[in-house]
Design brief:
single chain; about 230 residues; alpha/beta; five-stranded parallel β-sheet; four-stranded antiparallel β-sheet; about 20% strand; elongated
Length: about 230
């Protein structure tokens, strides 16, 4: 996704940039309401993430101005205000979704993905495939060569990240952030789950797909792309 983030908290901005860029998204930043409004009017984005408490112009006014100008880009309001009245105000000014701080980064990504899909009129997500390995992101069904593979949630999440980035190398830190956010477990946890994933998808296959790039990370790649 191509995201516009209108937020003035530098720590939160940094965390969101690191998270979304590690997941393959692009992010443009506006740190006050006036700049955010200008970006929203002139740019093309899949979703706008909009804080309410902003210098220059508050988020409600930004959203209202965008809607008055005919901008239909989905807007998710991100704020510490958590009362029903606050939420109704947000929707009344044209927001499509509302998430209260603090929040989990994977939940934010899931909400943004859903907004972007609805805006594009999509009803299904494309099936992921690398060589004879396939993953349906909707049903979470994994198959290799027609053989059904059952995976626990963490190896399944790792597999999805590797497939979406294939044939690129995904650094260890990026994988850990994608799976555990900003609170990864000890350093052996990722290695353990990679071992489980490799055993599940490569054990009965002629060609292994999961590769370790020593000292850097991992990648999932078809034999003809190596």
């Amino acid at each position: 996704m191509h995201l516009l983030l209108i937020e003035d908290n530098p720590d939160l901005v940094g965390n969101l940039i690191d998270f979304f860029e590690s997941r393959g998204h692009t992010v443009e930043i506006a740190q006050n309401g006036l700049v955010g409004l200008s970006f929203g009017l002139e740019g093309r984005y899949d979703v706008i993430v909009l804080d309410l408490m902003l210098p220059g112009m508050d988020g409600l006014e930004v959203c209202a101005r965008l809607r008055e100008a005919g901008v239909a880009t989905p807007v998710l309001m991100l704020t510490a205000r958590d009362t029903l009245a606050d939420k109704l105000d947000g929707f009344g000014y044209g927001a499509d979704d509302y998430l209260v701080k603090p929040f989990a980064l994977p939940e934010l990504e899931a909400r943004l993905t859903a907004l972007a899909r609805r805006a594009r009129g999509e009803t299904t997500r494309a099936r992921l495939a690398v060589a004879d390995l396939a993953l349906d992101p909707e049903t979470l069904r994994v198959e290799r060569g027609g053989r059904r593979i059952e995976l626990a949630p963490i190896p399944l999440r790792i597999l999805e990240v590797l497939m979406r980035r294939s044939p690129a190398v995904v650094r260890r830190a990026e994988l850990e952030r994608a799976v555990w956010g900003d609170d990864p477990p000890d350093s052996d946890a990722l290695r353990t789950h990679i071992h489980i994933l490799r055993g599940a998808i490569d054990r009965e296959a002629d060609e292994p797909l999961v590769q370790t790039v020593r000292g850097i990370g991992y990648r999932l790649v078809a034999p003809d792309e190596r």
